[in-house]
Write the structure tokens for this entry.
Amino acid sequence: MKRVYFHNMLRYILPAMGGLLISYLYNIVDGIFVGQGVGADALGAVNVAVPYITISMALSSIFPMGASAIIANSRGKGDKRLSNQAFINGAFLTIVFAILITALGMLFPSFIVDISGGASLSQSMKDLASEYLFFYSAFQLPFLLANALSIFVRNDDDPNLALFGMIAGALANILLDYIFVYPLSMGVAGAAIASGLGQILSFLILITHFIRKKGELRVRRERLSLSLSLEIAKRGLPEAASQLSTPISSLCYNWVLAQYIGDLGVSTWSVLSFVASLCVGLLTGVGQGLQPLFGQAYGKGDKKEGSFYLKWGIIISLLIGSILFLLCPLLPGPISSIFTSDGELIASSAKALPYFAISFVPMGASLVITYYLFSSKKGVSANLLSLSRGVFLKVLFIFLLPLLLPIEYVWLAYSLAEVVGLLLGLGLLLLDSKGKVEESKPQNGC
């Protein structure tokens, strides 16, 4: 039986890791091309725009992840009706949110750049950031729908198609980035448009799962339920809180670094944030891959199966995090030079990266614990852990460390927050094992 569990785990984890890694690659590839093809100011400009983009992605994940938690639980119980209703409600909420985000990003790009930490930067960097944000926002509907469909397709027993759809979009993005930035000299606007066209391709591939009716989920008319929508939002909040970690950290780092260091500090954070995105994609993929398995085990009432996935998920996450931690301090210069040829920026990024890389060791284990808690309806605990390690602790340390230590130690803020977050997660698991964590009350049979 353990061999079956292990096979299921790898079958879901590996495509989820690959899909999320590719999803984060969109902004990273943009950063590489504009950093090498346009300049250090353009690299910093992309990073100033990234918080709005990644906050949008994090908030939109509430709906597909919340719906997927209900889908997994319902499938474990054999309730196909509720499973499909959750799918349609989650997809509808994603579309509404995407339209809102598109409008805001295209109508108010300069204002968004200012509140993202750009107000203290040079006018040239602010203009480039506004230009990138405007064109990237134009593609938010296919971007957010492609991410939502990859989650739904994975939960509908087709993780390989979910991975293939994201790979195809990413490869198209790389090719178009090169064409638009180099031969056509379209600058940051070209990089943003390339990302958008790549996401359209991903969406077209993923939607074929439902056109061909490969799984149990169907695109059909379903009742839009307010109570179910609220349950979806509640169940998806821990995932959003986890994904908000990077953009909120970016906002705080942009504010602090613009004040203490200036353009060089913001550009240094841009390199670190791109590295972090790759690592976060890998580590989050372990938790997201396990989410359907956690939910189905909980729906069947099989505690042994759920505990197996939890234990091995933590072990795998710690192993991946440790490898990432060892690689970053060993190769700080070569890693930094991927994004820029500016010698001063390479030196600054290489100095900061070892401090920052410590965070990768505890991060994945905390994420696995979070997915386990929210998939088993421990919503209060899951939200507490997500918001603490992903938002509150990082904000606290980013603003506190420059007051207590020289500014170079601000790069430790991420690591300190993740260590404290993992201790909190282990404490919540201990309380859960003793039956001291209450389940969320079900709504609408969820």
Remarks:
- The first helix runs from residue 2 to 37.
